[in-house]
Amino acid sequence: MDAKDLKQLVKMAENGDARAQFKLAFLHLKGDSVTRDTARCAYWYQKAAEQGHSDAQYNLADLYLRGAGVEQNFEEARHWFESAAEQGDVDAQFNLGLIYTQGKGVQQSDTEAFRWFLKAAENGSARAMYDLANMHLDGIGTEQNLELAKEWFDKAAQKGVARAVDMLEECEQI
Fold first, then answer.
1. Could you give the count of Cα atoms lying within 13 Å of 119 in the half-sphere of its Cβ?
2. pTM across the whole model
3. pLDDT along the chain (174 residues), means of 10
4. Domains of the chain, earliest start first
């Protein structure tokens, strides 16, 4: 990006354009045309996230989760993942499932983990399909249901999750 385009992008971001803020954050994350600066990246993601930009919400959540450019804060990570998830972001839905499984920034809840994995799986996340199948198989966060476990393992296998093929074969032995 040349200096003129960067100057225009900064001006748009400073004037509240969420897409420009998101792009500027990304540039700071990668060090592309600007100094690599995760704190500055977080600043611009925050600005865009507050305006409802779902990709910025997801990326800001990830920064809080990792403590990159901001102090690690699992509650903030959950908040921003949830904001993105409610807008249909599949990866955010999956990550919320993980957060509730692990109890990071929330009270651990297999029921909530199941709910978020289900949303992500229904929206096409192969990883969520696999985790959901395991939850059905073991009765975690839901009632044990071998048939639903098989269905979700099959869907995950069709999306290329190799472990799902093995688990599907194991389920057939039960």
1. 21
2. 0.92
3. 93 98 96 94 98 98 97 97 98 97 95 98 98 98 97 97 95 88
4. 1-87 (1.25.40.10), 93-174 (1.25.40.10)
